[in-house]
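Handoff note, outgoing to incoming analyst
You'll be picking up this chain. Sequence as last confirmed:
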Amino acid sequence: MNLHEYQAKELLQNYGVPVPSGRVAATAQEAGGATDTLGGVAWVVKAQVHAGGRGRAGGIKIVKSADAARGAAEKMLGGRLVTAQTGAEGKVVNRVYVEKACDITKEIYLAAMVDRSIGRVAFLASAEGGENIEEAAAKSPDKIFKLIIDPATGLEDADAGKLAQDLGLSGMQADAFARALASVYKAFLENDASLIEINPLAVTHEGELVALDVKMIVDDNALYRHPDWQKLWDEAEVDVDEIEARKFELNYVPMDGNIGVMVTGAGLALGILDMLKDRGGEAADFMDVRPVATRDQVAAGIRMLLGNSHVKAILVVTMGGGVLRCDTIAEGIALACKQAPGHVPIIVRAAGTAKEMAELALRNQGVDVIFADDLADAADKAVAAAKTSARGKGRK
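Most recent structure output, in case you need it:
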């Protein structure tokens, strides 16, 4: 789950990370009023979308009057902000964040993330933060410092001090950085985060450290531990199918191809996507079915794929084992197909527990599917079907 900047800042502020005073606004009038509430002589109006690169795309404006804040907000709200991370369609701006501007002397990049290669939390930091951090990292990778945290000891003062020194901080600034680092680490662990990125963590003219921009991603598999997260979920920022998939506990990511994919296992799904690509096909999605999925949840996933006008064929790969059986997947397919006659070709590769029962169930119920002998055969048939399918006419 991606958090908006203002949500991430509110959360980090509760852990002691210093952030500028700010207000969320859904209208231009509210944006103008926020300047009076905040006080000061200059403010920053920021489009709130789940994407980086907002500054270069015109989604961040410095203003020096309430009228200017209203004008900047009016241009952003309701429009689509196109950045390097949004794709050509961009994202609709439904809110802006107005905060007091800061005079800064130094921009630091700081991020906490999961290093999946070793299964530990790691910090990345650079003394050259700001909009050009990607370019700076590519040109001078030696200027990116990495601190891996041992879960047995946690973040140690000596490591925090060494990282502050590497970034050119000393004295009170180094102490403030160490406190911010500890706060970010605690917030990361307690909120099941996969990323907290502060860019920049700015040093002001007064010598204080302030988090000027924050990107935060939390693991929505941990929603049961954080009921308050429901208010953070912004459905306007999420694809409609992703919302539907979440209701049925399906792991789903939309893609740009025309082959709908449903697979029992994330690693297997990634392998299937590669196989389709190697054969000249393009997946329309990544859909991973949980080991404890029910027939109705599987049916919901198939209905989503059948309802996608871009999908010309569907590939279902089920490896029955443990809790989830192949016949459960088959029952879900049958249920969805009966509700959508004249569907696109559906290729099924089943293996493992209840494979024979699954195939028998589909045949006995007259469900129009194509069975594959192995993964390669399944990928070949899916690519071929997508090329010849006439959407809405079914398969002859």
